[in-house]
């Protein structure tokens, strides 16, 4: 991930790495093969933050509730909470 951050000129992106890296946590699902229903997906969405902002990051996650919408996206939003 540091290579991507360097290309964007934002330095390191530790907040992106704070989303728990477990085998069953994905942010993208192939809707054609019912990837969400079968819990098959990819981790392709990132949170980019400067070092000072990343140090204020207290919580991150992936919002699966949006998948209950009538026509959901194939991406589940990733989110972060920051405190001063």
From TrEMBL:
Any single Pfam family the record assigns to this protein: Exo_endo_phos
Domain of life: Bacteria
GO function terms (MF aspect): DNA binding; double-stranded DNA 3'-5' DNA exonuclease activity; endonuclease activity
Gene3D superfamilies in UniProt: Endonuclease/exonuclease/phosphatase
EC number: 3.1.11.2
BP GO annotations: DNA repair
Keyword Nuclease: yes
Stretches assigned to the Endonuclease/exonuclease/phosphatase domain: 23-75
Keywords carried by this UniProt record: Exonuclease, Hydrolase, Nuclease
Cross-referenced PANTHER family: EXODEOXYRIBONUCLEASE III
Protein name: Exonuclease III
Protein species of origin: Escherichia coli
């Amino acid at each position: 991930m540091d290579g991507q951050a360097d290309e964007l000129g934002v330095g390191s992106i530790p907040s992106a790495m704070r989303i728990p890296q477990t085998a069953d946590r994905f942010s993208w699902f192939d809707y054609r093969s019912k990837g969400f229903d079968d819990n098959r997906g990819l981790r392709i969405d990132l949170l980019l933050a400067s070092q000072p902002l990343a140090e204020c990051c207290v919580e991150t996650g992936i919002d699966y509730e949006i998948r209950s919408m009538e026509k959901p996206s194939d991406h589940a939003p990733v989110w972060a909470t920051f405190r001063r």
